[in-house]
Amino acid sequence: MRRGVELSEHENPGQATVLVLRGRVELIGSAASWTGRQGDLILVPPERHRLVTRTR
């Protein structure tokens, strides 16, 4: 995903993770948000969420 691109709010269909290959992303849930940087593995919460790229 390029900088500034957003994966709009959606349901988590089951167990899922996000691996940040490069740059920085923010995963935003209803009660909390998580920032991931290069090499981070983020566990996707079992709730509606969205993903935003912050840097490339």
TrEMBL record:
InterPro entries with a match to the protein in the record: RmlC-like_jellyroll, RmlC_Cupin_sf
Domain of life: Bacteria
Protein name: Cupin domain-containing protein
